Amino acid sequence: MEKNFGINVLPIAFDLRDYDQIKEGFKKIYKHTKNLDIMVNNAGILDDALIGMISKANVHDVMSVNLNSAIFTMQYCAKLMKKRNCGTIINISSIIGRFGNEGQVVYSGSKAGLIGASKSAAKELGQFGIRVNVIAPGFIDTEMTRSLGKSFYEERLSSIKMKRVGTPQDVANTALFLSSDLSSYVTGQVIGVDGGMVI
Q: Higher-confidence residue: 192 or 153?
């Protein structure tokens, strides 16, 4: 980033499953910048299990990363954004969080919960000039989707009306729109980036 765009970058790494590390991470952000303009919650894990095979660890891990961490980070970044009465929070959910999928009760529950939490946050924070929106990607070409097997991959591809798998850039472009002044009157929305997988 610094080399390509001439932007100063401060990498801060912390475990999103650990509340105390999240808190310390935001303390470092405040110490360095004193404010925050944009927050993108993009962390997510997938641990599929059919009903009857879902373990306590499965629920704990997926919910901790996909939902709980986003709630905690929204809480801390809102404190920073309120100081200037502006800011944008973008939470990355999933098409599965909107429509469910067999074998993904926990994953879809975490992503659906993220949508609900985002809509509630948008209602709370709008008065402070803070916008909260959700991106719900469909089938995106990532290491995770490529690991699902060729037949599954081709089955999903056949369900996409635009006849191509989405790219991380497709999702990033939507995040860019939601981060910009072009979406200054958009909050509490769920934008599907799925190529017409669901219409």
A: 192
Tokens of 161: 């009306």
pTM: 0.92
| Long-range pairs for 22-26: beta carbons < 8 A, 24 or more residues apart | 22/69, 22/72, 22/73, 22/76, 23/72, 23/76, 26/73, 26/76, 26/77, 26/79, 26/80
Quickly count: other Cβ atoms within 10 Å of residue 54's Cβ: 16
Which residues belong to the active site? 107
The whole-number pLDDT of residue 9 equals 83
3-state secondary structure of 31: helix
More confident residue, 158 or 6: 158
Instruction: Please name which of 40, 41, 44 lies closest in space to residue 144, comparing C-alpha atoms.
Output: 44
